[in-house]
C-alpha cells in the first residue's frame, strides 16, 4: 500500500479517444478563455469607469464578473496543459490547490446569483426604497459574507484529502481536480469526506437554488399585482439576464448530478461534456448575455471604446 506522501502526481483526463486532435481542440478552448477574460474584464472596467453605473445592480454584476474570472483562472492551467502540451500529470499539492479554488469560486458564483435574485426582488417590490435598502455598506457586507462563506466551507477539503492514503490507479476522470474525483481514489473509508462534501453542496448550492426559486415566486406575485401590462413586461424584462445566468450555471450541474445518480451506464463523454458546460460556459456567456440584454452596459461600453479610440487618434495626431 502507498500513501499520499509517496504519490507525487495525479493524472488528469482529456476527451478520451480524441488525443490525435488535441492540438485542434486547444484553439476553441483558448478562444473561450479569451472571451471569458476579456468580457468579464470589460464589464468591471465599464462599471468602474462610469459613475452612472455605481448602483446595486451593477455592483452585483461586478461580483459575478470577478467570480467568473476566478473560475476561468482556476480551470485554465490544467485544461491548457492537456490540450496544448499533452501534459496530464499534476502534482498532488497543485491538484488540491486547484480543487479548492474551483469549488470556492463555484460556490461564490451561486451566492452572487442568489444576491442578484434578492436585488431584483427589492427593485421590483420596493422600487422607491431600493437605494435605501441596498446601501453601499450592505452591498459590501454581502460581498464579504459571500467570500467568507465560500472560503470557510472549503478550507477543510484539501486538508482532509491531503491526509488520505491513495493506493489505487491515480487517474482522475476530469481535466481538472474536483473533490469527489480525488476522494474516490483513496484506499480507505472516505465516509467523513463524503458527508462533508454532501453537507457543503446542500448548504450552499441546494439552499441557494431554493432561495432563488422562492425569490422569483415572490417577484411573480408582485408583478401580477401591477395593473399595466406594459409595466409588468418591463419589470420582468429586468430579470431576463439574471434568469439566463441562473440557467447557465445550474442546468449543467443538475444534469451532471442526475447522471451520477441514475445514469450509471452513461458514456464518459456525457460526464465530461456536462462538467465542461458547468465550469467553462457560464464565465464565457454571462458577459455576452449581460452586454446584449442590458442597454446601459452596452451603451457605456461602446461609448468608452469610442472615447478610447478617439484618445489614441488624438495622441497619434500629436
From TrEMBL:
Chain ranges of the G-protein coupled receptors family 1 profile domain: 39-290
Pfam family, one: 7tm_4
Location of this chain's protein in the cell: Cell membrane; Membrane
UniProt xrefs under CDD domains: 7tmA_OR51-like (cd15222)
Keywords: Cell membrane, G-protein coupled receptor, Membrane, Olfaction, Receptor, Sensory transduction, Transducer, Transmembrane, Transmembrane helix
GO molecular function: G protein-coupled receptor activity; olfactory receptor activity
GO cellular component, one term: plasma membrane
Segments crossing the lipid bilayer: 20-47, 59-84, 96-118, 139-161, 195-219, 240-260, 272-292
Official protein name in the record: Olfactory receptor
Organism of provenance: Chrysochloris asiatica
Recorded name of the encoding gene: LOC102816262
Amino acid at each position: 500500500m502507498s500513501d499520499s506522501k509517496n504519490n507525487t502526481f495525479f493524472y488528469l483526463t482529456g476527451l478520451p479517444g480524441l488525443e490525435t486532435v488535441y492540438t485542434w481542440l486547444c484553439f476553441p478552448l483558448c478562444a473561450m478563455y479569451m472571451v471569458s477574460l476579456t468580457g468579464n474584464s470589460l464589464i468591471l472596467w465599464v462599471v468602474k469607469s462610469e459613475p452612472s453605473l455605481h448602483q446595486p445592480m451593477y455592483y452585483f454584476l461586478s461580483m459575478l464578473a470577478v467570480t467568473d474570472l476566478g473560475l476561468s483562472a482556476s480551470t485554465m492551467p490544467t485544461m491548457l496543459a492537456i490540450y496544448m502540451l499533452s501534459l496530464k500529470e499534476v502534482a498532488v499539492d497543485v491538484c488540491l490547490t486547484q480543487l479548492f479554488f474551483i469549488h470556492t469560486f463555484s460556490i461564490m458564483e451561486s451566492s452572487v446569483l442568489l444576491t442578484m435574485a434578492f436585488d431584483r426582488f427589492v427593485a421590483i417590490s420596493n422600487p422607491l426604497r431600493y437605494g435605501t435598502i441596498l446601501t453601499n455598506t450592505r452591498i459590501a457586507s454581502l460581498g464579504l459574507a459571500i467570500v467568507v462563506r465560500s472560503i470557510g466551507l472549503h478550507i477543510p477539503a484539501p486538508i482532509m484529502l491531503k491526509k488520505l492514503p491513495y493506493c489505487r490507479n491515480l487517474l482522475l476522470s476530469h481535466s481538472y481536480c474536483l473533490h469527489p474525483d480525488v476522494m474516490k481514489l483513496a484506499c480507505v473509508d472516505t465516509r467523513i469526506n463524503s458527508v462533508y462534501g454532501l453537507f457543503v453542496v446542500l448548504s450552499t448550492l441546494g439552499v441557494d437554488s431554493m432561495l432563488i426559486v422562492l425569490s422569483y415566486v415572490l417577484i411573480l406575485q408582485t408583478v401580477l399585482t401591477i395593473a399595466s401590462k406594459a409595466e409588468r413586461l418591463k419589470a420582468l424584462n429586468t430579470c431576463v439576464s439574471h434568469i439566463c445566468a441562473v440557467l447557465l450555471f445550474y442546468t449543467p450541474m443538475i444534469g451532471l448530478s442526475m447522471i451520477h445518480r441514475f445514469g450509471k451506464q452513461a458514456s464518459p463523454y456525457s460526464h465530461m461534456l456536462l462538467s465542461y458546460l458547468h465550469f467553462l460556459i457560464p464565465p464565457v456567456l454571462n458577459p455576452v448575455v449581460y452586454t446584449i440584454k442590458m442597454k446601459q452596459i452596452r451603451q457605456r461600453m461602446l461609448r468608452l471604446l469610442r472615447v478610447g479610440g478617439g484618445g489614441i487618434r488624438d495622441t497619434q495626431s500629436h
